[in-house]
């Protein structure tokens, strides 16, 4: 008779310790302080400006991680009283032919435990990257004006690099704090009443239609995706009606790899657009396709979402959310061709729902046990990640001229 899967005894993660930061950058210091607040950790921060020993403009995941590890090792040797070292290494990566500015966070503990996490990939316009390659320079050196931060420049200061890095730090700490979720599948029993109450609270009801506003159509009926789109539109001050048109997958409910995820997101956007035009006889303001899938980054599995946004004139943007490190046991289930209990195809969101009914299609809520909260006190869950990617999509459209061509000097 197989042994029962008993809940493991939890080993408490320290909540009060000295942390070293391998940089004196004000942005990175603020990011570390924000992350400590989100994780409710009492951290005394020490800084040491470490050397990466790689190029100043690291390109690719391997070079980024190598530079981060070098910085961490040096800082750990210099900051003798630090229990953990936090390293933030910004670099460039290419996803499906587009260059992104991506922050990497690498954490190394005094006991040699380590973990890395990748922040929100921010798209870099082709004209800018061409100048960087031509002049063999850093991206910031080719940006006009006093502010050399591409994230600030291309969003008119809307995106805060410190906040983006802070969430990457949170993601790096998560497998260390919530190690039980990463160690193996552990089921959580919930009462039927609690599940019903939770689901009722999570239902997203679209506001009553306002004929004076334009429509944004999304190829999904998912409450999580609808809420994320609504939040992102509100954040960018885009008054609109959100029209939900469910779209069946192009090939699979569980796309793996950037190309497959992008294909499904594009399919959702274009299919909902075609359906809307056929029914209404006009173009919406935007058609949006959001797809969640799995990618492997530096030999580790991550869940990530892709947002494809099509404007009324046909202008298309692609953006990605911050990746979330998946447990190895979950990834192995996929590789082994595991089925769900009812025999249906394996999918991360539904597999997690088998373990905890409150976390259906909500990986982040499951992995953090619902304990990580935003500044407003709400639990961090999947909507937050999807909203990130959609928000970047909106910003690409709003600042379209900056993306299409180099600004003319005054």
Secondary structure layout:
Layout (H helix, E strand, L loop, with lengths): L15 E6 L4 H13 L3 E6 L13 H18 L5 E12 L2 E12 L4 E5 L3 E2 L2 H10 L14 H4 L7 H17 L1 H5 L8 H11 L12 E4 L4 H13 L5 E4 L13 H23 L5 E12 L2 E12 L4 E5 L3 E2 L2 H8 L12 H8 L7 H5 L14 H17 L1 H5 L6
Parallel strand pairs: 1-2, 1-3, 7-8, 7-9
Antiparallel strand pairs: 3-4, 4-5, 4-6, 9-10, 10-11, 10-12
Quick rundown:
By secondary structure, this protein is of the alpha/beta class.
Describe the model.
This protein is an alpha/beta fold. It has two domains: 16-121 and 161-177, Maf protein; 180-404, Maf protein. Helices cover 38% and strands 20% of the residues. The chain is built from 14 helices and twelve strands. Strands 1, 2, 3, 4, 5 and 6 form a six-stranded mixed β-sheet that branches. Strands 7, 8, 9, 10, 11 and 12 form a six-stranded mixed β-sheet that branches. A hairpin with a 2-residue loop joins strand 3 (84-95) and strand 4. The chain is globular and about 65 Å long. The protein starts with 15 loop residues before the first strand and ends in a 6-residue tail after the last helix.
